[in-house]
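Appendix B. Raw example, untouched.
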Amino acid sequence: MLIEEFQSCVLSWSQQNGRKNLPWQEHPAPYPVWVSEVMLQQTQVTTVIPYFNRFLREFPTVTALAAAPLDSVLHYWAGLGYYARARNMHRSAQIITTLPEFPSSMEQLIKLPGIGRSTAGAILSMGFGKSAAILDGNVKRVLSRVHGIESWSGDSRTERELWRLSESYTPNQHCAEYSQAIMDFGALLCTRKKPLCINCPLNKHCNAYLTQRTQQIPHPRPTKTLRKRSCYMLLMHTPRHQCYLEKRPPNGIWGGLWACPEFSTRQGLFEWCNEHDIKQDILQWHPTLRHSFTHFHLDYTPVSALLEKPVDMIMEDQQSIWYNPTSTKSCGMPTPVNRLLDRILQGEKPVDATTQR
């Protein structure tokens, strides 16, 4: 298939059917494009839009983002998951503000934390109008089907071939329009399930369509059984809805967020309570819940403790707070912890304590 024909088909389809009112399209510039691209990693557009709007209202410029406390950044990210994205963006913003201008080359961009080749390509093409290839999941699927590439697109050899194809199809002009068009093409037409092949302007050239293999191409990520991890989360709270939270380490799951103290065993929970003069007979056990991550399932048992007032001796450093959802300045919390606070503070009934011992 001729390169010019491929470009023409994608751009013409986009003019009639592409998304034109996404918030980051309204005022295309490197910073909002960057924010949108990072948020869209592993996350659907419909989910991202309200987060993007709130984030840009709070941090309208890269300078504002760099100057903000990480806690505030994580608060406005809470619910999107993959929190390393927010930490990397915050760190990158701080680096960018030390530079004469926003980085405008592939070499400069990929040196920044959390910016890979495809994200850099999107910033260059949609933010600067430069010719730069992108290769997100939607683009991978389109190219794999058109060229009949069966293997999983995350395989290193396959990915190299897809990058070669993406670069060959990327035009020198209308770069921003093409980048958005090829992503929309995959998201709206060449979908993972039930692609609309009959309406596709590329169907007469598409290997997967012509060989009736659209459901087999590309191969999905190799499946693996997710391991399970269990823990106990202690939610200490007062009648005034003050809740004790600890700041998690900067790296790892929920890095840098505020969460309930977590224990791998009941014995560990009991020992911690004894050390802090929390009587075991006030502990209330709640039904076990599950939160799934990319690599494992977390089964956590909430344990609540109603205290008459905050325990002062716990406040040893800046890594712990008594948080009141109605009066304290918002802080970044994982969605499961936020929901857990709501459920228990609203009076969720515990289970029979004898079943937990």
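End of appendix B.
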